[in-house]
Write a structure and sequence with these properties.
Glutathione S-transferase Yfyf (Class Pi), Chain A, domain 2; 2 domains; Glutaredoxin; 4-stranded mixed sheet; 222 residues; 7 helices; alpha+beta
């Protein structure tokens, strides 16, 4: 039996979703975030970095979202969720699988960190911290964020999904970056194609079953 070490409101939702798409049986061990919105120390008993998601399967402990998704696809015959080898769609699939954690998530984490910095310092230096944080976001982070949004829109306008004209695990990988980003997108941005895509993934029974197994997931409400 596969065990998923699941941190609430985290990337771990994608692993439950993929397990549901594959029709696999699994157990969920849920962890609650601390008051600082961090993972609890108890996760370090599972993996030295104390992060989620982590799965245990047949005596193996596997961490990192992309590695877990690759493992599940390869081990449990998920070829119907991956474009055929040697196709243009397979190249796009590989790109988005790496992009989700390698490019999208670091930028979103930076955006979140700089938004929180002013509230984490002593009150008498908060005006300075706020000025610095806003400067970094305005000059360095937000221009990159706009480029990434434009890339997402272009890809989805192409044929509706992130790796061709069919749903694939690339869409699962990209769900957390896109859902997490929606709360940070300004009202002046065109989000129609992103919202259509989110409606499509959320309509999938496996997505809904994953919500039931994992519990509250705030990004499903964006």
């Amino acid at each position: 039996m596969i065990t998923v070490h699941y941190l609430d409101n985290s990337r771990a939702h994608r692993i439950l979703w993929l397990l549901e798409e594959l029709g696999l049986a699994y157990d969920v061990k849920t962890y609650k975030r601390t008051s600082d919105y961090l993972a609890p120390a108890s996760l370090k008993a599972v993996h030295p970095l104390g992060k989620s998601p982590v799965i245990e399967d047949n005596g193996r402990v596997i961490a990192e979202s992309g590695a877990i998704m690759d493992y599940l696809i390869e081990t449990y015959d998920g070829k119907t969720l991956v474009p055929p080898a040697g196709t243009e769609e397979r190249l796009r699939y590989r790109y988005w699988m790496h992009y989700a954690e390698g490019s999208a998530m670091p930028l979103l984490v930076m955006k979140l960190v700089f938004a929180r910095i002013p509230g984490q310092v002593p009150f008498f230096i908060r005006p300075v911290a706020r000025m610095i944080s806003e400067g970094v976001r305005r000059k360095l982070i937000d221009p990159q964020f706009a480029d990434h949004l434009a890339l997402w829109r272009t890809e989805l306008e192409r044929d509706g999904w992130f790796a061709g004209d069919r749903f694939s695990v690339a869409d699962i990988a990209m769900s957390f970056p896109v859902e997490g980003a929606m709360s940070a997108i300004g009202r002046d941005q065109d989000t129609a194609v992103l919202r259509r895509w989110m409606e499509a993934i959320r309509a999938r029974p496996a997505y809904q079953h994953a919500l039931q197994r994992g519990g509250e997931y705030r990004y499903a409400k964006s």
